[in-house]
Amino acid sequence: MKKTKIRAKVIGQPQTSAIIVDQDQADRVARGLEIALSAATPVDTGRAAAGWTINDLSDTNIRVNNVVDYVQYLNEGSSKQAPARYVEMTVDAVRVLTRGNTGRLIHATRNKKPGWKYGENGFVYTYDPTKRGSELSAKKRAMTTGTNIKNTIKTLGAAAAAAAITMTASERKQKEENK
After folding, report:
1. pLDDT at res. 130
2. Are 60 and 3 in contact (CB under 8 A)?
3. Angle in degrees, CA 76, 77, 83, rounded to 5
4. What is the average pLDDT score of the chain?
5. Is 9 helix (H, G, I), strand (E, B) or coil?
6. 95: number of Cβ within 10 Å
7. Least confident span in 45-54, 88-97, 153-162, 166-175
8. If you average pLDDT over residues 13-38, what whole number do you get?
């Protein structure tokens, strides 16, 4: 079966790593990610939270975008309502919900450097084995990521899981037509 890559993109920042799913699950997971990102976005006026949209780039690529001009600053930690990199954390949380990630610390490599990551699909925090405390620091960062993902799942899991299970492509199209 063909696979589809789903990524999140905030204006002014690189897109996130992909959630890779079977094509028949792509619309549900993209909708779940859209809902989870909207729920995770700090709210003052609600404009940034409402700014998440799904763009079907092709059969194998979907992007959940937010082009609100200040959302990149929210993702960098300018609001006390959400931690820095909340977009990436939310993508990781939806990936965990989608894939049933094992949720453990794993020793890994990135660019031929040793490191630690949380779960099979997590970001690898590298360290310099010649520097004292470097490995412990990388391991702590991976553990913090794991804690943030778990907290995000607790907060958003029900909404994202429900949306990912219940909304199909035709339902999303019908919703967009009714706007």
Report:
1. 95
2. yes
3. 115
4. 81
5. strand
6. 24
7. 166-175
8. 85
The ranges assigned to domains in the chain are: 3-177
CA dihedral sign, ordered 42, 153, 21, 176: negative
User: Is residue 5 helix, strand or coil?
Assistant: strand
Contact 89, 83 (CB under 8 A): yes
Query: Mean pLDDT highest for which of 87-91, 131-135, 160-164?
Result: 131-135
Average pLDDT value for residue range 109-131: 88
Q: By C-alpha distance, which of 62, 91, 77, 65 is closest to 10?
A: 65
- Sequential DSSP letters for 142-176: HHHHHHHHHHHHHHHHHHHHHHHHH--HHHHHHHH
Three-class SS state of 62: strand
64 in Cβ contact with 27 (< 8 Å): no
Strand partners of residue 117: 106
Tokens (6 digits) for 174: 């019908």
> What DSSP assignment string belongs to 85-139?
THHHHHHHHHHHHHHT----EEEEEETTEEEEEESTTSPPEE--TTSTTHHHHHH
pLDDT in tens, 83-116: 888 888 888 778 766 765 556 788 999 999 999 9
**Residue found by looking up tokens 């890779």 in the block:** 20
